[in-house]
Amino acid sequence: MELTERFEWGGRQIAWGRAGAGPAVVFCHGTPFSSLLWEPFAEALSRDFTVHLWDMPGYGLSSKHAEHRVDFGVQADAFAALLTHWGLDRPHVVAHDFGGAVSLRAHLSLDVGYASLMLVDVVAIPPSGSPFFKFVQDHPDLLGQLPGYIHTAIVRAYIQGASHRGLRDDDLDALVRPWTGEDGQPAFYRQIADYDERFLEENERRLGGMDIPVRILWGARDAWIPTGIARRLRSLIPGATLSLIDDAGHLMQHDAPVPLMDEIRAWLTAS
């Protein structure tokens, strides 16, 4: 499933793709990833659902202009506009990492309706951000000028740490590739510099008003976001359910693809 379509929004180009027939399902990726993580799951579900993939502005195949902010607020606005462009009223949404905060903000602050929401190892509530994240926020311009081979080594080590089982070289190469080169390297540090936890604080204050079905999945070995955050998130969302997936880290898509696929299909079928 390839992102062959482009949506022009606010001077940005948002890459997206659609396949299948049936109830609408939209996948939201996180950082520093892209829709590539969700591609095999979307392809498998396209037999029974109309699946939508997109790369957020500043990520993947979407535009990476230096003058465009890529914070949670911008991404939520882009998501709401994209759903309108697609003509979707109440799709099912499956979100990972940063995509959790984006989809939650679109629902809680922009009144975007969903049939259901599945949150997979998401950035959603404070606190967030690793020591590496905080270091980059203090030195975004300096790091953007690193020699390319050093930058690539940093990004490879960073993304590899998201997996509990470890990534194969070809999978790691595919995840790192969008962040290399003249456009990709500065974009990598820019998306971290634009990270603003105030959006997470606003989400947290509004979670108690949610009235849609919410399912939370978390890797039991997530080294980026501890399971304590998952349990607190569940306690804040009325009626939300939580399952921890054994032997999976933050990249459940690679660490436990079969249990994740089973969970997604069962959730979408029941919702």
Automatic annotation (TrEMBL):
InterPro entries: AB_hydrolase_1, AB_hydrolase_fold, AB_hydrolase_sf. Signal peptide: none annotated. The keyword Hydrolase applies. One of its GO terms (cellular component) is membrane. Pfam families: Abhydrolase_6 (PF12697). The keyword Hydrolase applies. Keywords: Hydrolase. GO terms for biological process: acylglycerol catabolic process. Residues 25-259 form the AB hydrolase-1 domain. GO terms for molecular function: monoacylglycerol lipase activity. It comes from the Bacteria. This is Alpha/beta hydrolase. It comes from Actinomadura rubrisoli. The lineage of its organism: Bacteria, Bacillati, Actinomycetota, Actinomycetes, Streptosporangiales.
